[in-house]
Amino acid sequence: MILSDFNIREIEQKDNVKIATAIRKVLIEYGVPKIGTAYADKILDTLFEAYSTKKAIYFVIENNGEIYGGDGIQQLNNFEGNVCELQKMYFKNEARGIGLGSKMMDICLQKAKEFGFEKCYLETLPYMEEARKLYRKVGFKNLNAPMGNTGHFSCNLWMLKDL
Questions:
Q1: In what order do the strands lie in the sheet with 83-91?
Q2: Which of 51, 72, 73, 162 would suit a FRET pair with 59, their CA atoms being 20 to 30 Å apart?
Q3: What's the pLDDT score for residue 39?
Q4: Which residues, including other chains, have CB under 8 Å from residue 7's CB and lie 6 or more apart?
Q5: Domain boundaries, the chain
Q6: How confident is the model at residue 92 (pLDDT cuts 50, 70, 90)?
């Protein structure tokens, strides 16, 4: 598949099951721990509702009714400050390596700026090498410790970008 095969749009309630399934598939593929990561998030099955709040948005990647991944931003949990978190950026294998990550990142970071956030934070894992390469490419810098409290204690790499 190529970039133009995919449609990027805001999540709709009908997407909840499909995006949760896609995210879990990617996490299993990468051997991510099921505890302390997005896999165990209580909101994973209700992302439409979770992002239906102020200064939050989630996008899905779609082709012919199938959801291939997504990415969103939201205020960083349990943190005092004007910082958002880039969240749940996962793509099925068919949607990787064709520029969707860069495009989704641009869309989310632009929304973060529109919402007035000053910085964007993210958490990841050492073996998510393709994602980490993309994060560095758009200006995320490594941190020595986590910010806020996302509940993702198994994610041991933290990054921050000035918006």
A1: 7-10, 57-63, 66-75, 83-91, 119-124, 157-162, 141-143
A2: 162
A3: 74
A4: 61, 62, 63
A5: 3-162
A6: very high
